[in-house]
């Protein structure tokens, strides 16, 4: 297991092989992870707990 400090960028992509989350730190270290929809839901819950980001509110703003 590795740690990417100071997350600089993330990319979420869906391919024929599955859903992939690619994260890059400000030191250009990159990890590409295959994830499931359940994984993404858990990731968003953790982001909400840590940063107080309300996903539903952001989705509502985009819909407007």
TrEMBL record:
Output this protein's name: Uncharacterized protein
What is the originating organism of this protein?
A: Caulobacter endophyticus
């Amino acid at each position: 297991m590795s740690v990417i400090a100071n997350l600089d960028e993330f990319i979420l992509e869906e391919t024929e092989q599955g859903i992939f989350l690619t994260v890059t730190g400000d030191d250009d270290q990159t990890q590409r992870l295959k994830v499931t929809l359940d994984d993404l839901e858990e990731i968003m819950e953790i982001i909400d707990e840590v940063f107080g980001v309300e996903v539903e509110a952001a989705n509502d703003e985009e819909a407007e």
